[in-house]
Amino acid sequence: MFSNFSFQHPWFFLLLLALPAIGWWRRKRASQQEVTVKMPTLEVAVGLKSWKADFQKLLPWLRALAFASLVVALARPQLTLKEESIKAEGIDIFLAIDLSSSMLAQDFNPDRLEVCKRVAIEFVEKREHDRIGLAVFSGEAFTQCPLTSDHRVLTDFISQLRCGILEDGTAIGMGLATAVNRIKDSPGKSKVIILLTDGVNNAGYVKPLTAAEIAKEFGIKVYTIGVGQEGTAVSPISRRSDGSYVMGMARVEIDEELLQQISGMTGGKYFRATTARSLQKIYDEIDRLEKTEIEVTSVKRYSEEFYRFVWLAIFLLVLEMLLRFTVLRSIP
C-alpha cells in the first residue's frame, strides 16, 4: 500500500527539522528556570513517584506528533490508483500437430505425442496476447480448434489429443493446408504456423509444397519441427482388432529436406527435436523470434489523502488539551 503513496509537495517535510530544534530549546529553557529549594532533609520524599508526573512527560510528544501530521498533510499525500489499458496487436498462430500412430514411439518419455502436448501447452500459456488455433492430421486433417484468445479452451483440446482418431498415415500437405485455410483471412498483421511431424508425407491429396506456396502467397510464415531420435525406436508396427497397438522396433524416418523447403519458402525455420529438452528449446526459440508488440497506455488516478492527517493532528491536539487540563492538570 505504501508503495502507491506519493507526495505533491514533499519539500514541506523540511519543517520536521524544527522538531529537534524546539526540543533542544525547551530543555535548555527548563534547565535555566530550575529553582533550588533548600530543605532540612529529603528523606521523606525518597521512593515517592506520581503516575501523573510520568504521563505529563508524554504531553509534549502528543503535540509533536500533531505537528508532524500537519506537515504530512501540507506535503499533500496522494494514493495512486493505476490502471493500464493494453492494446495488443497479437500474432495469429496455428499449431498443426501430427497424430499418426508413429507419434506413440517411445524414444521420448512416455512417448512423442505426450511430450509434444505438454510442450505445446506451455508455449500457448506464455503467449497470452496472441490468438492461437489447432489443426491435427494423420492420413487426413481437420481443425480441432479455430483461432481463439481463450487459451484455457485451447489447452484443453491439446491435452485431449490422441492417436487413432483419424485414418492412419502422414498427410503433411493436408495438415498444412488446413492450417493455412483457417489463418489466411485472420485480421492479424503477423501470421505463423508451427507444423510438427515425425514422418514422411505418404497420404492426402494436397502436396506439401503446394500448401507451402499458398502459405507464402498469404504472407504466412511456417516453422517446421521434425520429432524423433536418429536410428530406430520402439514404435507401433501393427494394430489389433480391439484397436490396441503392437509395439516393435521401427526405423525413424523424417523427410527433413521437405520440412526445410517448406520453412525456407515461407520465411520460417526448420528444427529437429531428438529429446524433450530440445523440443522445449525449439518452442522457446520460436517464442523469442515471434514476439508480440504491445502498446500500453497508462492511466493514473489519484486519491487525496491529506485530510486523514489533518484529522489525526486535530485529534492529537484535542487529546493533549483534555489531558493537560483534566486528569494531568498540574497545580502551580
Defining key terms:
elongated, 10 helices, alpha/beta, 332 residues, 6-stranded mixed β-sheet
Short account of what is shown:
This protein is α/β, with parallel strands linked by helices and 332 residues long. It contains 10 helices and 11 strands. Helix 4 packs antiparallel against helix 5 (151-159).
Chain-wise SSE layout:
Elements: E1 5-7, H1 18-32, H2 51-56, H3 59-74, E2 77-89, E3 92-98, H4 112-126, E4 131-137, E5 141-148, H5 151-159, H6 172-183, E6 191-197, H7 208-217, E7 220-227, E8 232-239, E9 245-251, H8 256-266, E10 270-273, H9 276-289, E11 293-304, H10 306-325
Parallel strand pairs: 3-4, 3-6, 6-7, 7-10
Antiparallel strand pairs: 1-2, 2-11, 4-5, 8-9
What does this molecule look like?
The chain is an alpha/beta fold and 332 residues long. It has 2 domains: 84 residues, no CATH class; 201 residues, Rossmann fold. Helices cover 39% and strands 25% of the residues. The strands form 3 sheets. It has a 6-stranded mixed beta sheet with strand order 5-4-3-6-7-10, sandwiched between helices. It has a 3-stranded antiparallel beta sheet with strand order 1-2-11. Helix 3 packs antiparallel against helix 10, helix 6 packs parallel to helix 7 and helix 7 packs parallel to helix 8. The mean pLDDT is 84.
- The termini sit apart by 48 Å
- Gyration radius (Cα, Å) is 38 Å
Binned, the helix content reads 25-40%
The description of the largest β-sheet is: 6 strands, mixed
Query: Can you tell me the CATH topology of the largest domain?
Result: Rossmann fold
Shape: elongated
Oligomeric state of the chains in view = single chain
Total domain units: 2
**Mean pLDDT score, rounded?**
84
Briefly note the structural class of the backbone.
alpha/beta
CATH class of the largest domain equals Alpha Beta
Low-confidence stretches: none
- Assess the beta-strand content as a share of residues: 25-35%
Largest sheet: spatial strand order: 5-4-3-6-7-10
Order of helices and strands: EHHHEEHEEHHEHEEEHEHEH
Number of DSSP helices? 10
DSSP strand tally:
11
Task: Quickly give the CATH architecture of the largest domain.
Answer: 3-Layer(aba) Sandwich
CATH homologous superfamily assignment of the largest domain: von Willebrand factor, type A domain
